[in-house]
Write a structure and sequence with these properties.
The chain contains 18 helices and 19 strands. The chain is an alpha/beta fold. The protein folds into two domains: 276 residues, Rossmann fold (3-Layer(aba) Sandwich), CATH 3.40.50.2000; 185 residues, 3-Layer(aba) Sandwich (Rossmann fold), CATH 3.40.50.2000. Strands 1, 2, 3, 4, 5, 6, 7, 8, 12 and 13 form a ten-stranded mixed sheet that branches. A six-stranded parallel sheet has the order 16-15-14-17-18-19, sandwiched between helices. A three-stranded antiparallel sheet has the order 9-11-10. Helix 4 crosses helix 6, helix 9 packs across helix 12 and helix 10 packs across helix 15. The protein is globular. The chain starts with 9 loop residues before the first strand and ends with a helix. The structure holds adenosine-5'-diphosphate. The site of adenosine-5'-diphosphate (ADP) has 18 residues, from helix 1, strand 14, strand 15 and helix 12.
Length: 501
């Protein structure tokens, strides 16, 4: 590993997903790309996640020693493996097979395992023990979403005066729709039963995310708009009051994308490459995608892609209700996604009933196909009810594929709406989410494709030249880490903060 020539800022990035090891969504992308970008800035960022069944152990090394993780009345043993991301970023895998040697990360068929509370409490508690085994003490623990939200709680309570007394924490909300809610009677599993209910209890339940929001030194979300939205009752999912009470500590930092992995000039998943100066490779990708999907190979038909978890959040129910009407237009639609079983069944059935225009690949996670869809399609649809950041619209811009998005959260922040008088913009936005507006916005995109192809080309060029690299975001995170460190040293605990006038 290349070493840094000075004492760098040390950040332990705690996560339940990290691509390419384990991923179900955008958190996996962020958990590898951000530490890599931080490392490039000179931050000693390291990642920790569970050793899931799907992780290939032959590429990892076992570290000497055993972690003894105190949890409730027990001490649970865990081994630690080490792997690597690009640029020498170290990734630690916490091994405890009884919790993590399972075919899924969170649960079977998009559901949840019954012991997720103890699984992720264990992960969060192991993180607090890990520095002792490594002989490496982080300045900041960066936790992400409910699965690791207990790490800042442990840091601010049990560990307040321990070896990590000077360590600050940042909790990033990637999606406030998932909070880690469990029966309050199960709090014993966390070893935190003595806590004041104000922080971990929410409307009679145990709420891990709320605990993290109260106890983290600072907080962030993954776009500016979402950081404002989560403070409102429409988007805060019940935690808006907690977030409003910490409004000065809450930052909105737009995710970047991994521009090495997502580059149509070099993407190894594509049958042909292309760039803003020569788009012929994109036409080849489109033909390959049509063949792959079993759709007629028609270069000039507008092709719309969807790559999404099939959930209510993503507006997939509205797409389902509108699909047959949209397919009356001269379009082709391909959809890749996994999620709600009703949605999977619906899009599977639609593949049979509209086999000349629609192809759904449901139930699986397929990175190669995701890349081909980004490259081969002309448009990418994201009709999300809410979208903390969204990555696919940024991949699309880079691949010359025009996003059609609902104006919410990160989608609103990253896409400029098309102006058909001037040709300005980078995509098509709509506000109300219902079948009629969805049909209208797709109709607008399709008519632009046929009637104003020069505007389509201009928008493609504009999008392909935009910079969504992680460097600006990593710089902002670095500033927030330093702010958290300063804060931690001034205000050592949640209770002390509450006691301040
Ligand atoms: P979220 O995290 O809410 O699911 P994002 O847009 O932030 O949404 O990130 C989703 C990520 O997961 C993207 O990288 C997308 O390409 C990927 N993805 C989603 N579903 C699939 C799938 N079935 N196969 C491959 N990649 C997928």
């Amino acid at each position: 590993m290349p070493s840094l020539p000075y004492q760098p800022l040390r950040v332990l990035f705690v996560t339940s997903e990290c691509t390419p090891f384990a991923m179900t969504g955008g958190l996996g992308d962020v958990s590898s790309a951000l530490p890599i970008a931080l490392r490039s800035l000179g931050v000693d960022a390291r990642v920790v996640l569970p050793l899931y069944q799907g992780v290939d152990r032959s590429r990892l090394e076992l570290l000497p020693g055993t972690l003894m993780v105190p949890l409730g009345s027990a001490h649970i043993a865990a081994r630690v493996w080490r792997g690597w991301l690009r640029h020498g970023v170290q990734v630690y895998f916490i091994e405890h097979d009884a919790f993590f040697d399972r075919p899924a990360i969170y649960g079977p068929n998009g559901g949840a395992f019954g012991d997720n509370l103890v699984r992720f409490a264990f992960l969060s508690r192991a993180v607090i023990e890990l520095p002792r085994l490594l002989g490496w003490t982080p300045d900041v623990i960066h936790a992400n979403d409910w699965q690791t939200a207990l790490a800042p709680v442990y840091l601010d309570t049990i560990e307040r005066n321990g070896a990590l007394a000077r360590c600050a924490s940042l909790l990033t909300i990637h999606n406030i729709g998932y909070q880690g809610i469990f029966p309050i009677e199960e709090i014993g599993a966390t070893g935190l039963e003595f806590l004041h209910p104000r922080t971990l209890e929410h409307f009679g339940s145990l709420n891990l995310l709320k605990g993290g929001l109260c106890h983290s030194t600072l907080l962030s979300t993954v776009s500016r708009s979402y950081s404002r939205e989560v403070q409102t009752s429409a988007f805060g999912c019940g935690l808006e009051g907690v977030l409003r009470s910490r409004t000065d500590d809450l930052f909105g930092i737009l995710n970047g994308i991994d521009t090495e992995e997502w580059d149509p000039r070099t993407d190894p998943f594509l049958p042909a490459h292309y760039g803003v100066d020569s788009m012929t490779g994109k036409a080849e990708c489109k033909a390959a995608l049509q063949r792959n999907a079993g759709l007629p190979e028609r270069p000039y038909v507008p092709m719309i892609g969807v790559i999404s978890r099939l959930t209510h959040q993503k507006g997939m129910d509205v797409l389902a209700r509108t699909l047959s009407r949209i397919l009356e237009l001269d379009v082709q639609i391909v959809l890749l996604g996994a999620g709600d079983s009703d949605a999977e069944r619906f899009f599977d059935e639609a593949t049979r009933t509209h086999s000349d225009k629609f192809r759904g690949w449901v139930g699986g996670f397929d990175q190669r196909r995701a890349h081909l869809i980004e490259a081969g399609c002309d448009f990418l649809l994201m009709p999300s009810r809410y979208e903390p950041c969204g990555l696919n619209q940024m991949y699309s811009l880079r691949y010359g594929t025009l996003p059609i998005v609902r104006a919410t959260g990160g989608l609103d922040d990253t896409i400029d709406n098309y102006d058909e008088r001037t040709g300005e913009g980078t995509g098509f936005k709509f506000i109300d989410l219902n079948p009629s507006t969805l049909y209208d916005v797709i109709g607008w995109a399709v008519s632009t494709w046929y009637d104003r192809p020069h505007h389509v080309r201009q928008m493609q060029e504009r999008g392909m030249q935009m910079d969504f690299s992680w460097t600006p975001a990593a710089r902002q995170y670095e500033q927030v880490y330093y702010a958290a460190l300063r804060r931690r040293r001034q205000v050592p605990s949640f209770e002390a903060a509450q006691a301040q006038p």
